[in-house]
Amino acid sequence: MKCLMCESLSLTHICPVCQELFLTPSLYKRKLPNGVDVLSFYKYSEIKKLLHTKHTDLGYYIYRLLAKNSMQRFAQTFTFENSVTSIAIDDNPKENYSHTALLNRALKSEFIEPKHAILRARNPLSYSGKSKEFRLSNPREFEMKSFEGRDVIVVDDIVTTGTTLQEAIAILKSNNKETLFCLALCDVSL
Question: Can you give the CATH number for the domain in which 89 is found?
């Protein structure tokens, strides 16, 4: 097959050279109004076209690759005094896979235990391209399944206004869970 970026022959959808040139992550930090940090790996503008594949068959491979280059690398260097749980936001498969579940799965390590299907949005509306006002007036209405452990990392693919993350943190807190920080592939504000 051909690399999606340079069109050279490649065994992967994006060749190793392009991954090194264009998909080497950086670590960015943003603080939500509730005081919780959000760490992200890319500027939205850098990977926008790749993110738009998430509801296609190709998206599965792209998100796996992005997860390997960012989330998995992060997990390999993360240490903590005890094991923590990572939970993906809105872990609802829209096609044949859940893009946030792929990101979350890549965090499995000595100190991080990914849990799946914990936070589900009851509100099926899409927030893509919507204003902060729309997001605030149409909360996700998460339902949370019970799980072991207190310390949590919340995982999402894109952070825009932060309202979805704050809603997820609030439901976790109401269930006596402590959100250490959030992880996102990219931040729109960068």
Answer: 3.40.50
Write the CA distances from 174 to 107, 135, 138, integer angstroms. 25, 21, 20
Distance between CA atoms of 165 and 186, rounded to whole angstroms? 13
7 in any annotated domain: no
Q: Which residue type, as a one-letter code, is found at position 126? A: S
Each residue's pLDDT tens digit, 45-100: 999 999 998 888 888 999 999 999 999 999 999 999 999 999 999 756 666 678 89
User: Is the overall model pTM greater than 0.85, yes or no?
Assistant: yes
Q: Count the neighbouring beta carbons within 10 Å of the beta carbon of residue 77.
A: 8
- Closest-CA residue to 87 (of 188, 17, 168, 173): 168
Q: How many domains does the chain have?
A: 1
CB 163 within 8 A of CB 157: no
For residue 157, is it within any domain? Answer: yes
Q: Containing domain of residue 177, as a range?
A: 25-187
